[in-house]
Specification:
This protein has about 250 residues and is α+β, with helices and mostly antiparallel strands. It has 3 domains: about 15-105, Beta Barrel (Elongation Factor Tu (Ef-tu), domain 3); about 115-195, Glycogen Phosphorylase B (Rossmann fold); about 200-245. Helices cover about 30% and strands about 25% of the residues. The protein is built from 9 helices and 9 strands. The strands form 2 sheets. It has a 6-stranded antiparallel sheet with strand order 4-3-6-1-2-5. A 3-stranded parallel sheet has the order 7-8-9. Helix 4 (about 140-145) packs across helix 7 (about 190-200) and helix 8 packs across helix 9 (about 230-240). It starts with 12 loop residues before the first strand and ends in a 14-residue tail after the last helix. Bound molecules: flavin-adenine dinucleotide. Flavin-adenine dinucleotide binds near residues 61, 64, 84 and 86.
Length: about 250
């Protein structure tokens, strides 16, 4: 029996773009407020599912739902501009309307994930990190190295402190440099990447580093200005201040 109020699964719900913002080069976050009954249809979506999003007049494509049902009634999609549909979406802005078709696909096994760290980079050829702002640390670079995955990154913020150029990946100044570096990744020793992460970014190494800084501050009698230069820089770093040399992206 066909129910009169049953939504045709081939018809999209309408969604108003509440916010569109840049996440990275060519990647935008779309925050969508569902209209015409879509909110009910998406009320019970589960993390890991995807939806079809359409740019009217262009076409539709599948995108993972980047939001969590517990945090916001809005749906969020992170869209990498690639071809026709994704370009059509990138040309839209707040207030424009898109189509969204029902949540689909298997969800993540959230119960099995509980209490565990997730490694999503394992097995990748390389991790591309075209960061264009002075990221203070860049945890994802350390996570990539921990999985034995070399990092190819733009020189900005902490990048030269996390990636050892030519050993655990490549630090480059522009897109052409990054493209050339990708070809060289095959020559990077992946075990060296893992070893570097263990040496500098393991829980123990990080805790020891903090302990050393606090000990140095105590030893200085509360006058970090009297510390040797390296400890002084660490104290400023732990306090959230960036070293002058790595502020901003240096040009090629
Ligand atoms: C289940 C699922 C979930 C997904 N989730 C996401 C997500 O969360 N976010 C996301 O961004 N994407 C996601 N995708 C991928 C997304 O659906 C595709 O990127 C999208 O379909 C591309 O559509 P398009 O019309 O823009 O590209 P098309 O025009 O269809 O391009 C298709 C083909 O042409 C090639 N191509 C087109 N233009 C270029 C170009 N300029 N340079 C090089 N190659 C090109 C592409 O490699 C591709 O093979 C997901 C896909 C699936 C199956």
């Amino acid at each position: 029996m066909v129910h009169a109020n049953r939504h045709n699964p081939m018809l999209p719900y309408l969604g108003r773009l509440v916010e569109v913002k840049d996440l990275a080069t060519e990647i935008k976050l779309f925050r969508v407020e569902l209209l015409n009954g879509g909110r009910e249809a998406f009320a019970n979506y589960r993390p890991g599912q995807f939806a079809f999003v359409s740019a009217f007049g262009v076409g539709e494509a599948p995108f993972g739902i980047a939001s969590t049902p517990h945090r916001t009634p809005m749906l969020e999609f992170a869209v990498n501009r690639l071809g026709a549909v994704t370009t059509g979406l990138h040309e839209l802005g707040a207030g424009d309307v898109v189509g969204v078709r029902r949540p689909m696909g298997n969800a993540f096994p959230m119960e099995a994930f509980k209490g565990k760290n997730l490694i999503v980079l394992g097995g990748a050829y390389a991790y591309l990190f075209p960061i264009d702002w002075p990221e203070p640390f860049g945890l994802t670079m350390a996570e990539s190295l921990a999985t034995g995955t070399p990092v190819v990154a733009w020189r900005s913020g902490s990048v030269p402190e996390v990636v050892v150029d030519g050993v655990t990946g490549f630090v480059r100044d522009d897109m052409d440099g990054m493209v050339r570096a990708v070809e060289e990744v095959a020559g990077v020793d992946r075990a060296a990447c893992r070893a570097h992460a263990e040496r500098f970014f393991s829980g123990e190494a990080m805790a020891d580093g903090y302990e050393a800084v606090y000990a140095a501050v105590l030893q200085s009698g509360g006058f970090p200005a009297l510390l040797p230069a390296r400890e002084r820089a660490l104290v400023r770093f732990v306090g959230g201040e960036r070293p002058e040399a790595s502020r901003g992206k240096q040009s090629a």
